[in-house]
Amino acid sequence: MLHKDTFRTALQKICVKRKVSNVEDLLSEKTTVKPKPRFVRVNTLKTTTGSVIEVLSKMHKVDKDDMVPDMLVLPPGTDMHKHPLVTDGKVFLQGKASCMVAAALSPKPGWKVIDACAAPGNKTVHLAALMNGEGSIIACELNKERAKTLQHTVRRSGANNIETVIGDFLNIDTNDPSYAEVRAILLDPSCSGSGISTERLDHLLPSYSIDDQDDAGSSARIRKLSAFQRKALSHALSFPSVERLVYSTCSIHQAENEDVVSSVLPLASSLGFELATPFPQWMRRGLPVFDGAQHLLRTDPEDDLEGFFIALFVRKAAAADALEPSEDGGALGRKRKRACTTRSGGLRAFSSLRLSRMDVLCSIWGI
C-alpha cells in the first residue's frame, strides 16, 4: 500500500508540473522535452571502464563522459535496472551531477575521509573508488533505516575501507583524536530536494523518504533546513586537519546554497579555508550574490537532469606547513601540527572550540 501511495503521489506531482488534470491527459500529451541521456558510473573497485564499455557497446552506443572519471553516457531511455553489471555492483545508476560531488572532493588514496550524511551511499562508495579502496572512509548516518540502505550499498560496491557510524555527525567532537587525521569531508546534508526532477521517479526508491520533497518550496521548511545546513557546514570546517571540504545539495534554492556558504565564510577564513573552483570548464556557476560566488557550481534540473549545488573549500597555504598542488588548481594543506594519533572511539558531543571560533559560530547560528 505504501508503494501505491508513493506512486500516486509521484504521478500527481508530474501532472501538476506538466499542467494536466489527470494521467490520461499526461499520456496523450505531445511532449517537446528533449530526451536526456542515461548516465552510469563504473565501479572501479570491481571492474574496469574498458571492460564495461566492451560489454555495453554490444547493445548500445557508449561514450565516456568528458568530465567525470569512469562515467559513461548511454542513449536516452536505456534501461539498465536489471542488467547483470548493475545487479552485481559493477555499475551504478547515478546521475552526472551526483557523481560530480565526490569527484569535486577528489580525495587521494590513503586519506582518511568523512561522509557526514552518507545514506543511501552512492557518493560514499564513489569516494572509495576514487581512493582505489585505500585509506578509510567514516560514513555517518543518523537514521537507522537509511543506515541499512547505506550498508547494503557498501556491500554491493565491494568497498572494504568504509566504516558505517549510526549517529549524528554534529555530535562528533572535532578534538577527538579519532578524527585528528581526517583530511577531507563530504557534506551532503538534508535539503529540500527541489532540484530532483519528478519525472525521474527517484523518490520511488526504498532509500527515498516519502516526505523528502513534500512542501519543497515551503519557506518555513527551507529556513529550518538552511539553519541546520549552516550548523553542519560550520562543524565540518572545524575539524583541525581537513584540507578539502565539499558542501553539496540537490536544491535549487539560494537559501540552501549560496546563502549557506556566504554565512560561513568568516569562519572558513579564520580557519584558513578559501573557496576553490571545481570543474572550471563547467559554465553554470553560483548566483552572483556575494564576491566569490563564481567559484560555486550549479547544475540545472531541466538542462542537466538534476539541480545540484557544489561548494569546494580548500585550506590556504597560509594555514598549512607544506603544500601540494591539486587537480583543480587549489591548494592542499598538510595536516596541522596539533593533530593527534590514536583512536579513543565513539561519537562525542560537539565542544571545545577556541573562543574566537565560538564567537563566529554563535554569529552564524544566531545565538
Automatic annotation (TrEMBL):
Q: Does the keyword Methyltransferase apply?
A: yes
Query: From the UniProt record, which GO molecular function terms apply?
Result: RNA binding; RNA methyltransferase activity
Question: Where does the source fall among the domains of life?
Answer: Eukaryota
Task: Identify the catalytic residues.
Answer: C250 (nucleophile)
Which terms under GO biological process does the entry name?
rRNA base methylation
Recorded catalytic activity of this chain's protein? a cytidine in 25S rRNA + S-adenosyl-L-methionine = a 5-methylcytidine in 25S rRNA + S-adenosyl-L-homocysteine + H(+)
Q: Which Pfam families match?
A: Methyltr_RsmB-F (PF01189), NSUN5_fdxn-like (PF21148)
**Alphabetized UniProt keyword annotations:** Methyltransferase, RNA-binding, S-adenosyl-L-methionine, Transferase
Q: Taking every annotated instance into account, which residue ranges of this chain make up the domain SAM-dependent MTase RsmB/NOP-type? A: 28-316
Q: Which family does it belong to?
A: Belongs to the class I-like SAM-binding methyltransferase superfamily. RsmB/NOP family.
This chain belongs to the protein called: SAM-dependent MTase RsmB/NOP-type domain-containing protein
Origin organism is: Aegilops tauschii subsp. strangulata (Goatgrass)
The opening ranks of the lineage are:
Eukaryota, Viridiplantae, Streptophyta, Embryophyta, Tracheophyta
